[in-house]
Amino acid sequence: MTDEKVVLDRDDMRRTLVRIAHEIVEKNPAQQLAIVGIHRRGAVLAARLHALVSELLDVDPPLGDIDIAFYRDDLATRPSAPVVHASHVDFPLDGLTVVIVDDVLYTGRTVRSAIDAIFDYGRPARVQLAVLADRGHRELPIRPDYVGKNLPTAREERVNVRVEELDDVDEVTISEASTATQEVTTT
Ligand SMILES: O=P(O)(O)OC[C@H]1O[C@H](OP(=O)(O)OP(=O)(O)O)[C@H](O)[C@@H]1O
Ligand SMILES: O=c1cc[nH]c(=O)[nH]1
After folding, report:
1. Contact in structure between 79 and 160 (CB atoms under 8 Å)
2. Any idea what DSSP says for residue 128?
3. CA Rg, the chain, in Å?
4. Cα–Cα dist 4/87, whole Å
5. Is the complex ipTM higher than 0.85?
6. Which residue's CA is the closest to the ligand 1 atom numbered 8?
7. Given this model, what pLDDT does residue 177 score?
8. Do 20 and 130 form a contact (C-beta atoms < 8 A)?
9. Domains in the chain, please, with CATH?
10. CA of 69 to the centre of ligand 1 (A)
11. Annotated Gene Ontology MF terms (predicted)?
12. Burial, 116: exposed, middle or buried (Cβ in 10 Å; 0-12, 13-18, 19+)?
């Protein structure tokens, strides 16, 4: 039996991304902006944010996606080889404000890896962070600039972001401790 509580439905997600897009545009000059999503659901959300931001601006900011598997701080100690997706950062990001996009912010280790990965492509002027859900429990000094929803959680719970492009549904749920099995293997 699945014991999940829906905390954002499809409409909530759409409204939330529209708000974040407005915040990004308000905070950054159009010509200096780039958006980079973290595989996999962060990249999907980044593409949606990019479409919204492009609608609001006269210019189409560069969009990229990165896989952070080889930058993880636990790479050497993980039991199996990571599944790696291709990264696409096909533009010079020197001097730009790079907005990293991810679905969930938890310990902050994925974002640390993403920052590391981004600096392999150049030297951005600044890096900002947009996340759909911030569930707390940070283990590093990382704080998002744009947050869809703050979700206070117990460590045993899991926040599940699902997107139509990959999961056939747009929703954010919280799994109760009894069904939060993935957390053990992914953090
Ligand atoms: O702040 P952190 O502790 O790094 O956790 C956040 C990350 O965890 C999730 O990925 P996960 O590794 O669970 O894999 P998934 O993308 O397959 O869900 C999520 O997509 C974030 O990228
Ligand atoms: O709850 C969590 C923790 C890490 N990653 C997720 O996607 N959800």
Report:
1. no
2. E
3. 16
4. 32
5. yes
6. 104
7. 67
8. yes
9. 4-71+86-176 (3.40.50.2020)
10. 11
11. uracil phosphoribosyltransferase activity
12. middle
d(CA 116, CA 101): 14
Token readout for 79 is 């039991």
Query: What does pLDDT average to in each consecutive run of 10 residues of the chain (187 residues)?
Result: 88 98 95 96 98 93 95 82 87 97 98 97 97 98 98 97 98 80 40
Q: What is the pLDDT of residue 178?
A: 63
Structure tokens at 76: 């050497």
Write out the two tokens for 18.
Answer: 């529209």
Task: Return the best residue to mutate from 78, 110, 172 for the ligand 1 pocket (most ligand atoms within 8 A of CB).
Answer: 110
Rounded to an integer, what distance in angstroms lies between the CA atom of residue 182 and that of residue 187? 9
78 is written with which tokens? 């993980």
**Which tokens sit at 90?**
């096909």
Phi/psi for 84 (5° steps) reads -110, 130
Query: Which two tokens mark 164?
Result: 């139509």
